[in-house]
Write a structure and sequence with these properties.
elongated; alpha/beta; Beta-Lactamase; Rossmann fold; 13 helices
Length: 405
């Protein structure tokens, strides 16, 4: 459908003039105004019925939704949307990056969409504060970087999550984990082992944490803490969801993950789930794990389970100047198991290792690999064939015995 840009803008302005600013109009009322405005112009523009329907949809998305992005956020096959300025949009579909053939009509339109996104989750982004994390109404995670930090226009990255949370059965079907490992992890979660999920960007840490949390007994009190709410915990009635807040020009002070972890300890949680540990909050998280909050879960970026421990050491030092032996001792006693995820060269996401933290001796955190992914071959389509192989038995079985498992 081709309609000149100036005619599109004229129709849009006419629609905006008819929308009442004195009260909040419903989507249906706005759609009626759009339909009527287009009908008034249809004959002069020689619009066919499909063209009118397409134009009405475009106008509604532009006025009430995310403009051209709405098409992508409604598409379940799109997992990531990357906007590098108004004319350069990439998407990830089935693990592959593709350049999208559409673009924003102007820098102003892209800026309008950005402000609409951040306003809906009570955040601000501007030249004075050019970086922000936000989320869409459907739960998708959004990262925005503006000038002067971004040199090639506003940068928006949207991580889209499935409408229905992926369960462990789905991960089994995808071949991301073995049935034996699922049974093993279920026992650990029920028994209250502290589990840390590690992996690189896009390895599926949040998805796996969601699936793992489904094993938590439904009669427990659960507190989730996130930078931007992404977790989709299902079936837990006693659930408290906390989200950080950025400082803003109105005088609202920042509320960090550290603040929320400390506050959550006074909420009588049975378990605490921290969506991602990436800074000084690691010290508060580890202290919570060592003060009776068994069964807590979290995630972090790392290239291996061993790297995750090293990163946690560094993050704890960012928050508090402690001797390394004290930090390592706290980590060894606080974290029971690390599940490491990875994204293989065929773009599949798999559990690569399940590692038990044994103890701290001789200035070293001792670990034991319980399961490890062994690559066996590559099929004719380039898919990696392999399996999660048991390596060693769990040493610390005290919590399993205490839970009667």
């Amino acid at each position: 459908m081709y309609i000149k840009e100036e005619i599109r803008n004229e129709i849009k302005n006419c629609i905006l003039e008819r929308i009442s600013l004195s009260r909040e109009m419903s989507d249906d009322e706005v759609k009626d105004i759009i339909d009527q405005t287009i009908m008034d112009r249809a004959r002069a523009l020689c619009l066919t019925l499909p063209m009118k329907q397409a134009l009405a949809k475009e106008m509604f998305y532009s006025i009430r939704r995310l403009d051209i992005l709405e098409e992508l956020t409604d598409d379940p096959s799109v997992t990531e949307i990357m906007i590098n300025g108004k004319d350069c949009i990439f998407i990830e579909r089935a693990g592959h990056l593709l350049r999208w053939d559409k673009s924003f009509s102007s820098d102003e339109k892209l800026s309008d969409v950005i402000q609409q996104i951040v306003a809906k989750c009570n955040r601000t982004v501007n030249e004075a504060s050019p970086i922000v994390d936000a989320r869409l109404e459907n739960g998708s995670r959004v990262n925005i970087v503006l000038a002067p930090v971004a040199l090639n226009g506003p940068i928006v990255t949207i991580r889209r999550f499935p409408e229905h949370p992926i369960q462990m059965e789905d991960l089994l079907r995808f071949g991301a984990i073995s049935e034996e490992a699922v049974t093993f992890l279920k026992g650990l979660v029920v028994a209250g082992y502290n589990i840390f999920v590690s992996g690189g960007t896009g390895s599926g840490k949040t998805t796996f944490l969601n699936a793992l949390s489904d094993f938590i007994p439904k009669d427990e009190r659960l507190v989730t803490i996130e930078d931007s709410a992404e977790l989709q915990i299902q079936g837990v009635p006693n659930l408290v969801r906390l989200e950080t807040r950025n400082a803003n020009v109105e005088g609202c002070k920042e509320i960090s993950i550290r603040d929320l972890i400390r506050s959550s300890l006074r909420m009588r949680p049975d378990r605490i789930i921290v969506g991602e540990v990436r800074g000084a909050e690691a010290i508060d998280m580890v202290q919570a794990l060592n003060t009776g909050h068994d069964g807590s879960l979290s995630t972090g970026h790392a290239n291996s389970a061993a790297d995750m421990l090293a990163r946690l050491e560094t993050m704890i030092l960012m928050g508090m100047d402690l001797p390394l032996p004290a930090i390592r001792s706290q980590l060894a006693s606080g974290i029971d198991v690390i599940v490491h995820l990875g994204r293989l060269r065929d773009k599949s996401r798999k559990v690569l290792q399940i590692v038990e933290i044994l103890d701290y001796k001789d200035d070293h955190i001792n670990t034991s690999v319980l399961y490890e992914f062994n690559e066996e071959k590559e099929d004719e389509k380039g898919h990696i064939i392999g399996r999660l192989v048991p390596k060693n038995k769990l040493v610390h079985t005290e919590k399993l015995r205490a839970a009667g498992l």
